[in-house]
Design goal:
about 400 residues, twelve-stranded parallel beta sheet
Length: about 400
């Protein structure tokens, strides 16, 4: 008996996914071969890849899309069930057409991305723990179903990319908490709000999502790494609060209201050691005491009102200067400070304000003034370096590109 006229029973000796259904028309065998001649000049083909142990083959298949891993079952009997032992599931909807139709035993079989995922989850070896699920999908229902499956099966690492969907934002949420999930990555047009308490989550990355709660991170009490990249904040939010008492690394890059900077950024992160702040300057910045702060990267840029939207209130240049100085004031316990060219430029035209500042970096060990790409760092106004080094005259001043510094200090 077959399910949907497609997949045989688990007890069948044939591949769980029929070769006629999933094999590409021009699929080439991936196993490498070598030729050896005998005394009569004949050649014997040796399948060197299939000589590897099952564990290593399964490990290799974990790095390719699950569709290709399933297709490998057509190589030989040795490969028939290898894909069912995969600890990593990679699903990419771009590898599927809208609907693929095959003729099998006089039956028309239709294979969709959603149908493929359903069969994989149903026929994989349930005794094998899933370590990671990586999903690229444009359909919200498929995304939600895979996310629920991952949480209910204790998957520790989940990555969801909905960048292919450009129509509207969809919520990503769950009813039940999970202590097994340790790493979560969400990318694309998703609404991110409050979750139940996830005690196991230590790493969270949000990219191009809309953050719909002003304080959405306290439900992850053991969070250690948080990366917010190109995230959007609705204009009705008063600001963004990051409350995470075990957070040690924070990245906030190019997050904004549209089309203005977010009004307030509040950090309640007493164990923060590394902060990477880039993009539009927050109108207001508040941070609790940061005694463990080791490294900061500041890459701020100006915000200018658009000609066709002059009614939108945006901070003027003077206010943006004050906002940047306030950020540096709140981060004065940092030991290593890295400033981008745009940040240095904004400070260089703020020398009058800097002269009135009394607090600076008392623990500073390294000041890295990052030069523009392929250009030397231009001379800075003396008041900038005087302010930054006022309480740490022995600090080392460098002009090392940011990517070079990160590579050196891995």
């Amino acid at each position: 008996m077959q399910l949907g006229g497609w997949i045989p029973k688990k007890s069948s000796i044939h591949p769980p996914f029929h070769s006629h259904v999933l094999t590409e028309r021009n699929m080439k065998r991936t196993a490498r071969t070598s030729s050896t001649g005998d005394a009569y000049g004949t050649q014997e083909q040796e399948d060197r890849l299939s000589l590897l142990p099952d564990a290593l083959l399964i490990y290799i298949l974990s790095f390719v899309d699950t569709k290709l891993a399933v297709q490998s079952s057509t190589l030989s009997k040795r490969w028939v069930h290898l894909w069912t032992f995969l600890p990593v599931l990679n699903f990419d909807s771009s590898l599927f057409e809208e609907e693929q139709t095959y003729t099998l035993d006089n039956f028309v079989v239709k294979v969709t991305f959603d149908n493929f995922i359903e069969k994989v989850l149903a026929y994989r070896n349930g005794l094998i723990k899933i370590d990671s699920v990586n999903l690229k999908v444009s359909d919200h229902k498929t995304m939600a179903r895979v996310f629920r499956y991952a949480l209910s099966h204790g998957v520790p690492d989940v990555s969801i990319d909905t960048s292919q969907n450009l129509s509207k934002y969809h919520p990503v949420s769950c009813v039940n908490s999970s202590d097994s999930l340790t790493s979560l990555t969400l990318k694309g047009m998703l609404n991110f709000g409050k979750f139940p308490n996830f005690l196991g989550l230590v790493s969270l990355r949000l990219e191009r999502v809309k953050i719909v709660e002003s304080e959405p991170f306290s439900c992850f009490p053991n969070l250690e790494e948080l990366h917010l990249v190109n995230c959007k904040l609705p204009s009705e939010l008063p600001g963004l609060e990051v409350i995470a008492f075990r957070l040690s690394r924070l990245t906030i890059s190019s997050c904004f209201y549209h089309p203005i900077p977010y009004g307030k950024l509040v950090l309640l992160t007493p164990k923060l050691a590394s902060l990477d702040l880039g993009g539009l300057i927050p109108m207001s910045f508040e941070a609790s005491e940061l005694p463990l702060l080791e490294t900061i990267h500041i890459d701020c840029c100006f915000s200018f009102p658009r000609a066709f939207d002059r009614s939108v209130h945006q901070p003027d240049e003077t206010q943006q200067k004050l906002n940047l100085i306030n950020i540096l004031r709140c981060l004065r316990t940092a030991r290593c400070v890295h400033l981008s060219p745009s940040t240095v430029k904004l400070l260089s035209i703020s020398h009058g304000m800097l002269a009135e500042e009394h607090s600076s970096f008392g623990n500073l060990k390294v000041l890295n003034l990052i030069p523009p790409p392929n250009k030397p760092m231009s001379e800075l106004h003396s008041s900038v370096t005087s302010y930054l080094l006022k309480d740490s005259p022995q600090a080392v001043v460098k002009t090392v590109p940011r990517y070079t510094f990160r590579w050196i200090n891995r």
